[in-house]
Design goal:
Structural class: mainly beta
Distance between the termini: 40 Å
Helix content: under 10%
Radius of gyration: 13 Å
Number of strands: 10
Largest sheet: 6 strands, mixed
Strand order of the largest sheet: 2-10-9-4-5-6
Order of helices and strands: EEEEEEEEEE
Length: 124
């Protein structure tokens, strides 16, 4: 059974940092793009960032470019999202996802697996 387990959310002040982690189990995610989406209260889920298996392909939503960095540790089947300079509008439930592909942007429109969410709250 494939599972994506997200963690690392919490409460942080504006300007602060958090690092989210998502660990996959049940299979090896070689040749899978992994990444993050988020859903703010009252809004639709939106793409945040994605990374290919090799790390050679990354893709970010415009509002997080320069503030968020996605990385992965394949030996641990884990993807990370380092979030710096957080803003109140980053408040959301963050979900990890994966798709069989070598091209990071493919995750935007299709996903094979989803994890449960982790809540990030940024206070002003």
């Amino acid at each position: 059974q494939v599972q994506l387990q997200a963690s690392g959310g919490g409460l942080v002040q504006a300007g602060g940092s958090l690092r989210l982690s998502c660990t996959a189990s049940g299979r090896t995610f070689s040749s899978y793009v992994m990444g993050w989406f988020r859903q703010a209260p009252g809004k639709e889920r939106e793409f945040v960032a994605a990374i290919s298996w090799s790390g050679g392909s990354t893709y970010y939503e415009d509002s997080v470019k320069g503030r968020f960095t996605i990385s992965r540790e394949n030996a641990k089947n884990t993807v990370y999202l380092q979030m710096n300079s957080l803003k109140p509008e980053d408040t959301a439930v963050y979900y990890c996802a994966a798709i069989y592909s070598d091209y990071a942007p493919d995750l935007v429109n299709a996903q094979d697996y989803w994890g449960q969410g982790t809540l990030v709250t940024v206070s002003s």
